[in-house]
Amino acid sequence: MPRWESDAQGRLERAALELFETQGFERTSVAQIARTAGLTERSFYRYFPDKREVLFADNELEAHLVAQVEAADPTLSPIEALLTALGTADEVFHPRDFLLRRIKVIAANPALAERDLIKLADIADALARALERRGVEPGKARFIIDVAIAISRRATSRWLAEPDTALSELVAQAAAELCETVTPPAPTVR
Amino acid sequence: MPRWESDAQGRLERAALELFETQGFERTSVAQIARTAGLTERSFYRYFPDKREVLFADNELEAHLVAQVEAADPTLSPIEALLTALGTADEVFHPRDFLLRRIKVIAANPALAERDLIKLADIADALARALERRGVEPGKARFIIDVAIAISRRATSRWLAEPDTALSELVAQAAAELCETVTPPAPTVR
């Protein structure tokens, strides 16, 4: 991904991730991140309000998913539109290695873990509004989003572990697994 | 807990909720909350570390749900154990009127909304560990929890609006709705 490799924002993200890994989030300063990226502190603040935000810059993901839901074939059911959109998230994801390292850094730091929850909630809210614009009643839209996020989290964690399967395929698998999970097995006929 | 102690906590919670409603979370001080409840600031800090925590004191809910999952019949599937537990949450809920007012206050204040997300994530983590103790593989446990939370949120928001239906009944309805939502309608045979 040459464009991502070369841009200042990407350099800051990679520098921050590396510093958070090696010396911890708390002990890393904005000045250090900028220096490691070969940039000034001022450049840092052009991209991020503070160091907690460095790993959460991808508004691209939210915008991408909302655009996908909006562009979805009107004959698709709300959940189909949503799952199709979520199955294309890998188009805007960072490289897999970056994502795996990022997950570990976030899990190790409560401030980052909180930011991650808030970010996910923001994406969920944006997607709920996109479903409402397709005519889905708000309570139902929220339910469908919660279900789709459960499916998407399941699929994404597998995708990170199984590089050879397409994300869209893993989303379809998790959706199928969902129904099996919820429906109790049919009683044995005697 | 002696009755007077839990009553003091309840008085502080009700006083805080009322002050947050009438003058906003930001403009309310711990001193005011304590005074309105007829208690000292020192008493306040016996129950809560700070004013953001006043509306999130119900560790009772997490403990109740975990205990229910642990006590569930071993022949129940993981999702059945979880949904049965979630269907009993009303046993430890605050009165409905308090919950409805609390939801509005939380939605109106980003600091409280963040705290709410973290609280829910903590409950989810505790329930995932409870499922793992029942022998469920961690990735699967997380998936089942996410799905059960989607169902529970749908059921609880209906329960708040429809006082006459039991929460356990609404949980069962939402679980049934889930499968219909995910499974596309069978194609019409021509």
From TrEMBL, chains A, B:
Alphabetical keyword list: DNA-binding, Transcription, Transcription regulation
SUPFAM superfamilies documented for this protein: Homeodomain-like
Residue ranges the UniProt entry marks as DNA-binding: 29-48
Residue span(s) of domain HTH tetR-type: 6-66
InterPro entries: DNA-bd_HTH_TetR-type_CS, Homeodomain-like_sf, HTH-type_TetR-like_transc_reg, HTH_TetR, MftR_C
An MF annotation (GO) of this entry: transcription cis-regulatory region binding
Record-linked Pfam families: TetR_C_14, TetR_N
PROSITE patterns, alphabetized: HTH_TETR_1 (PS01081), HTH_TETR_2 (PS50977)
PANTHER family (alphabetical): HTH-TYPE TRANSCRIPTIONAL REGULATOR RUTR, MYCOFACTOCIN BIOSYNTHESIS TRANSCRIPTIONAL REGULATOR MFTR-RELATED
Annotated protein name in UniProt: HTH tetR-type domain-containing protein
Organism whose genome encodes this protein: Streptomyces malaysiensis
Higher taxonomy: Bacteria, Bacillati, Actinomycetota, Actinomycetes, Kitasatosporales
